[in-house]
Amino acid sequence: xxxxxxxxxxxxxQSLKASDVIRNDYVRSQFINVYNAIWKEGGxxxxxxxxxxxxxxxxxxNSLRECxxxxxxxxxxxxxxxxxxxxxxxQALCYLLPRNYCVGKNQQxxxxxxxxxxxxxxxxxxxxxRAKAGQILHADNPVIVYEGDxxxxxxxxxxxxxxxxCRIPRQSNRIIACFLKITRPDGTVDYSVMTEQDWKRLSDxxxxxxxxxxxxxxxxxxxxxxxxxxxxxxxxxxxLKAKCIKHAFKTYPKIAIGKGTQFESEVIEADxxxxxxxxxxxxxxxxxxxxxxxDKSFAAPxxxxxxxxVAPAAGNDDCF
Length: 320
Fold this sequence. Notes:
Shape: globular
Oligomer: single chain
């Protein structure tokens, strides 16, 4: 399309209700073309499948239906670019999350916000992307360690190690650690380990990030995510496993993601886009989106209570 056609199409998409974007003829054609260009085949089937999952999440979430048409377009096209699926389940790879973005100020100097749809990649989805990128071969299920289990970790001759023995019957219900074993493409092993001190620190951050003013007490009250204490005062095990996955790749290279996408663990910088001249959005990206100024999540993260084993298909490269 020439510039005028692109601008016209962008205006049309932006004017659409969120629930009408996915079934738009142009959006359908763009998704199929992008999917086939990257993954060689299967675009029509992928479109029908992901359109069903996408619209299902829109129907179930009022805030998603209030998102801009263009943000819905970006999030949907990013599914085709990354080859991910919105299929729900215990190990969901991604889900949709609305966020408020500051887009300017009104005449009174108050911030103006618009709601945008973000394709949010879970810890399991991140494992899939890293396997496709060739950074890992596969990852085992995260393991919860209880007091009384045999457990030690460290580094020897430049390599991390974990020695673990599950005591049966269990001697205590107190959780003391969680670890994830990662196998690299060359066969070497890496480990991610979280201890009680790590998630208590994250809980403190969460409390500060979600504090609110209590008029009765005349003071701020810190309000950490309830999952840090939902298991009889302990961290929820599914939440801990997801945290362990998400924090496993602090020292790994960044994964390029699209304009409508973010990781659960962090929002990737806008300049970390796919290094290619191929434009999956048909010229409608229109520059970098402003960073969110107010982060309000209206959808619960996917249930990631089960473990995960990721093995790349043959021939593939790629809140506290």
